[in-house]
Amino acid sequence: MGRRRLSGAAVAQDMTCRQTKFKHYVDELQKKKNRSKSSVWARFEHPFRILKRFFGFDKVRYRGLAKNHHRLWANFAPVNLYLYRKCLAVVA
């Protein structure tokens, strides 16, 4: 079992941002890589921030996996409406 994990981890990508400054040298290529990684991360995390701050889904109650899953889906409906409120206001 341990060998399978190691062989699978060999193809895994490291998606953490690296330090770009070393003494007086700035690595521009690493800066570009970090910027693309953090832009993907920000797009993914933004709806969760809205869900936590505006709609109060900051604590998970242990009521079972299925109930938590359904509650999360139901709470993401107003998040989607909030994110696209400008587009919806133009249509209406």
What keywords describe this structure?
two-stranded antiparallel sheet, mainly alpha, 4% strand
Could you please describe the fold and organization of this structure?
With 92 residues, the protein is mainly alpha-helical. The chain has one domain. The chain has helices at residues 2-9, 28-53, 65-83, 85-91; strands at 21-22, 25-26. The protein has a two-stranded antiparallel sheet. A hairpin with a 2-residue loop joins strand 1 and strand 2.
Précis, in short:
This protein has 92 residues and is mostly helical. The chain has four helices and two strands.
* Helical/strand content category: mainly alpha
- H/E topology pattern: HEEHHH
Low-confidence stretches: none
What share of residues is helical? 55-70%
Question: Any idea what the radius of gyration is?
Answer: 20 Å
Shape: extended
Count of separate structural domains? 1
According to DSSP, the number of beta strands is 2
| Rounded mean pLDDT score | 80
With strands numbered from the N-terminus, the spatial order across the biggest sheet is 1-2
**Strand percentage, roughly?**
under 5%
Main beta sheet strand tally, sense and closure: 2 strands, antiparallel
Q: In DSSP terms, counting alpha (H) and pi (I) runs of 4 or more, how many helices?
A: 4
- Assembly annotation: single chain
- Termini separation (Å)? 57 Å
